[in-house]
User: What shape does this take?
Amino acid sequence: MAERTSSGLLTMMLEPTPAVAMTLPAEVREKLAELELELSEGDITQKGYEKKRGKLLAPYIPQIQGVDPSLQIDNRIQASSQAVLSGSKHHKSRAANTRDERFRSDLHTEAVQAALAKYKERKMPMPSKRRSVLVQSSVEACTPPGVPVNSRVSSKIQQLLNTLKRPKRPPLREFFVDDFEELLDVQQSDPNQPRPEGQHMSPLEGEPLEVVNNWPPSLPAALQRWGTTHPKSPCLTALDNAGKPVYTLTYGKLWTRSQKLAYTLLNKLSTRNEPLLMPGDRVALVFPNNDPVMFMVAFYGCILAELVPVPIEVPLTRKDAGSQQIGFLLGSCGVTLALTTDACQKGLPKAQTGEVATFKGWPRLLWFVTDGKHVVKPPKDWHPPIREASNDIAYIEYKTSKEGSTMGITVSNAAMLAHCHALTQACGYTEAETITNVLDFKREGGLWHGVLTSVMNRMHVISIPYSLMKVNPLSWIQKVHIYKARVAVVKSRDMHWSLLAQRDQRDISLSSLRMLIVADGANPWSISSCDAFLNVFQARGLRPEVICPCASSSEAMTVAIRRPPEMGVPPPGKAVLSMGGLSHSVIRVDTEEKLSVLTVQDVGQVMPGALVCVVRVEGTPYLCQTDEVGEICMSSGCTGVAYYGLPGMTKNIFETIPVTSSGIPISDRPFTRTSLLGFVGPDSLVFIVGKMDGLMVVSGRRHNADDVVATALAVEPMKFVYRGRIAVFSVSVLHDERIVVVAEQRPDASEEDSFQWMSRVLQAIDSIHQVGVYCLALVPANTLPKAPLGGIHISETKQRFLEGALHPCNVLMCPHTCVTNLPKPRQKQPEVGPASMIVGNLVAGKRIAQACGRDVGQLEDNDQARKFLYIQDVLQWRAQATPDHPLFLVLNAKGTVASTATCLQLHKRAERVATALMGRLNTGDHVALVYPPGIDLIATFYGCLYAGCVPVTVRPPHPQNLATTLPTVKMIVEVSKSVCILTSQAIMKLLKSKEAAAAVDIKSWPMVLDTDDLPRKKTPQMYKPPTPEMLAYLDFSVSTTGILAGVKMSHAATSALCRSIKLQCELYPSRQIAICLDPYCGLGFALWCLCSVYSGHQSILVPPLELESNASLWLAAVSQYKVRVTFCSYSVMEMCTKGLGSQTEALRLRNVNLSCVRTCMVVAEERPRIALTQSFSKIFKDLGLSPRAVSTTFGCRVNVAICLQGTAGPDPTTVYVDMRALRHDRVRLVERGSPHSLPLMESGKILPGVKVIIANTETKGPLGDSHLGEVWVSSPHNATGYYTVYGEEALHADHFNTKLSFGDTQTVWARTGYLGFLRRTELTDASGERHDALYVVGSLDETLELRGMRYHPIDIETSVIRSHKSIAECAVFTWTNLLVVVVELEGSEQEALDLVALVTNVVLEEHYLIVGVVVVVDPGVIPINSRGEKQRMHLRDGFLADQLDPIYVAYNM
Assistant: This one.
């Protein structure tokens, strides 16, 4: 990499290309610089700037290979000569908000260009955005309708896969082995990494502090001396925004005004006749940056009154970045009073009362204005106490840590005095010198030089406010010239800005300067500013040796400073260091001009009277070797003393005891950690390579945030992002730090440009630092939180990123390239044989996992219905025995009874249907029943049985949504081979309507009969089936994976099902139960159509659709009829929870009371949704619902009712299992709340006559109860087989008759297709046996096999939904081994991109999986079936066919 020479740097900044550099006349260069400044200040638009600039350069451009300048920008990579074309445009500085410490990335653009040239332009898939989200419209944004399925999405996924196939950087170490007992940190370091080889360093001593004759015993004593002996001597000159001196404070004035304030504070402020302040109390100083005079008076007023000033920033709004933390600091310091100026007080936000508003997190403060009219002249006999400097606290300086918390650093009077002494000696300050100060006078260098040391030496300070620098970056140089200042205190930024404003440089001389103190000389990138500045201003009298970089920190104050030339010090040093070495904390001078090097300058010698050493950053503070980078520690009388009120952290930072390699303390003095990382070079010069705050340790290697910023800036950023507005920080994800880069995007950058820039930044950082970037985000211009004096507030930016409040307009995540520490993929072990399995289980004391419900044979009950083999016979018998007994009540949306049926009425209606069918159909014909939920459906069902036909219940199409619902109806009718459709007149019209014709072929419907007005005819002889094994009905349902499956239910199974439910729920004719379920399939159908007829109880039927217009319908009915047993679905429960959550009070006033409910069962074919059932119980507890009442049932296609809580038996139990073990099909119980724990609720009690066993999905052998396996079921009410499984006929033959491969090989089982486990609990059931609980974990078809492990989508989805408040719903699926996460955004679209990083983080943290694609969609896009289950496969097909209209699709690299 090119050495950072000043000339190279300047050319890039000011001239269009190196080739033209020397040919541009001086006046053209000056005009260019003026333009530059106008643009950076916003006085001219980008367009205007380019136009004017083009005009200026037009005569000179053709000299470059005759290429049109506008074209050259696009061939960026070709040659570095072209790469720097339009340099001045690219290297613009946004003066108003440039990040404080960096402006010239001198990791030269050449280095980055060379690095990028190594990568052939790889095509990464660009994210897709919906038009409305685009900042600019982009070609890729919208797809025309009718895109074929090999769509844009699938081609992008292919692109992503191709990119991911590239060999990854080898994992630096297997970071942890995912062992269930603990996560083992396996740190294998790279055997080839550089290691330090030098000897152990010895501590470095500064020259002794000289004894000065007549040195004042304290700072107040110095003020008193100058105030009385030289009252006319100037102390401080303040300037306005035009650079005019507004006021010069003399030492006499400072002395008298400070005394007045001190007297007023101590004697004139009181509360309840008590003085408000006592010596030692803390007082906040809130002064704007352009009023140094008032600040100085207030500061010294406090010191004279022996009060402790705490200077802070002026809070401009109620929620400034970091303002809350300042409030915490004030609170912990016990501050009750804030001093400010009249103008400032008027500008503060006010409450309604007119008082200053209380800011978020701030204590209640009294505000005192220190302007003249509010302070009182002290009486003649009052004098402030002037004592010798003691160890009492003099002032508290605030500092913000890397994490964003604010600490107060206490400085004692003695340390304040000693620091002034050391600075005076090191800088050779003499009495009455003039010094210009550009720094913030409230803290650090600005306070030390411009407020404290200046008063010790009666110096004259010219204070340059930040606001003036923004208007006129040359102002400080002009003041040096006008006032013949001997010393200037600046930051690199100030030097950089002044280079951009050359027009007024002509008549300036800097020859008076003997010292130009660069306060942030410790920043590795300051060297380029120093070089460039010298290069321009040497011609204006600036001597090279007067540039004096210094290193300091809030805790240690000044650590080292390059001495002025007259002190006869060794010449300055420069080091070119290998970045690779630095990342291992090793210093290697890089001789072969490599790409990745860092050039640093020294920061001079250690402070007088100080002892300095370098210690290891982590763990015990061992001394470093001489070629090793560590944290600089300093022991001296002039460092901060403590963090106020934080004794633990104070001990760690201010009382460190460095030790030698053998553990012996190097000194009996405590050391202060400076938070500077560096080493001691030749000639005892100190070199700094970074700060603890910017340190990012990724996979054991260290990277400095500033270095990464510089690399990013070297990638021709000026077209797409703002130069100073880049934040780099690391976040901890999955046991390692991950680098995040956030930049502000220019409004005129197109999507493609930004995306290309982002890809290149990733490549450059990868190439130069050998580290991957985890996330690169671009945010709209001016939206990053600002620090008080310009720059970006890093910790606040990080906070927003982690909270999902950054609102980026572009995001690129690279988890595939960065995350190299995933646990090893699981290798399947060869299965052990059956015999050893059984022996192993016995030895381990494990039971084979099997359980059964009560034995039906032994249950005595007066069950009349048992005498009948067929359900239709039961109906006929009831119609004769109890003709007027009401069986069904159907409620409408108003809660009134819409229709009823007694035993006889139902029988008569069924007879009419049978009569209509018998003339037209043959025995055994299949008939589709397409009815809304109601008594017609039940009557026609029995009519079919009477006629010997096989009914198939079908959900009617939705009139508003025929396009998607009608094809399903058609499919079921066709697949079930129905020869006739029975329906109502309204639906019959719908099936043959014009709208229907658009969705399906309406000519191919079978015969359609409407049963609304059937004639009363004499019924012929009823059909009697020859055997109970005959088919009674078909039950069709669409599974969550999108498979339409119909199962055959025989008459015997139908009766057995009814009997089992009757026994479990204790159903008798005197009972009422309420049912809020769809009546078309599974247990919902059985409860609507079969159970009341069998058991004789009355069913109150509530169609779930009616809840959409009246959410309280079901619960009101339960209360009104005092129902003890009720059934609902998850969708219904969700409607009640969401719709009625805030209305329980109103329901109570309507006398809704749920204390009658003994059991409320959710009918489901999935893992119990604990969160939903718990919130339902919690919400309706207020209406008397017992917390024990809610439970779930479990059924599936092979057996619609396996578990059901019923009325007897112990309450359902909940266990917590380790989610990581579950991925390996192991069940390990853990405590509630332990990491990775997953709560699982038992799915109700196993029904009478049902046996359950857990079997291995592959070997079909029985499992022990600590294993997850497939639930197999054996029962008289199993279905007898699939009628058809649409699309998968061959696969399912063994679902209904499977035998174990060993153990009990005789019993015939049906495979449920669900994974679960059994646990023997401590509870006893009705028979006195210990109760076996069945836990269902999820459907086998839905599981995702990733990295050899088994994942359940719901677990990943739960994590994702928890990750951000605006995620309403989530569904995951895999495509070509990539995990795709679809989230519904329930917020503004600007939040869409916040979700990408949060989703990726949470899935990595909790599931050790890398998300391949994140899709953000509108609420309601994820399809849900009638049972409230997500249809993930439909979603997948929709995504791949580009049908989701997503807000944003991110392809993670």
Q: What stands out?
A: Confidence is low (pLDDT under 50) at residues 1-22, 62-107, 134-150, 167-187.
